[in-house]
What we know:
This protein has helices at 14-27, 41-52, 66-74, 87-95, 107-116, 126-138, 158-164, 182-199, and strands at 5-8, 31-35, 57-61, 79-81, 99-101, 103-104, 121-123, 147-150, 168-171.
Amino acid sequence: MSRNIIAILRGVLPQDAVAICEEILAAGIDRIEVPLNSPEPFDSIARIVDAMGDRALIGAGTVLSVADVDKVNAAGGRLIVSPDCNPEVIAHTKALGLQSYPGVMTPTECFAALRAGADGLKFFPGDMIGPVGLKAVRAVLPKGTEAYAVGGANPSNFKEWVAAGATGFGIGSAIFKPGDTPAEVRAKADAIVTAYDEALA
């Protein structure tokens, strides 16, 4: 079962990446991003893709430029997540056949992203937008638009977000913080999957 959860491994080290991702995948989360402001992110992405690229959707977060998209693609990543809505980055991502999830807050940004070809929208920062804000924007979005809540979404409020129209979540520190062991990440990932499944039941 593939869940609409993207695990965000900000700060992960290349030598630790595969062991951590194996635990995340075993817990039932098969979408993983390494933010580009992590140490040697392209090395981490390449190692993860080599180990499990056939079993999971791997890519990068904090992707801000067309050049970054090319580097992620060269490392084997298939997922491009950004904190902002940059039509050039979205269009280039789609031209390479990769998946695009740009960051948005306003209806203007949402529609600009969709017109540029985005696969879905990353509502960020989620704790500023909140379920109330998402619900209001959701009313004008095309039916079927994927809406990921990122930043402020966690197991304690998944149900609230889903009720407001969220179709997925990007989870950062609630699943991984630098220094976490694979076992610690697995315990957090298990709790996230349980809460997600209950919220969507």
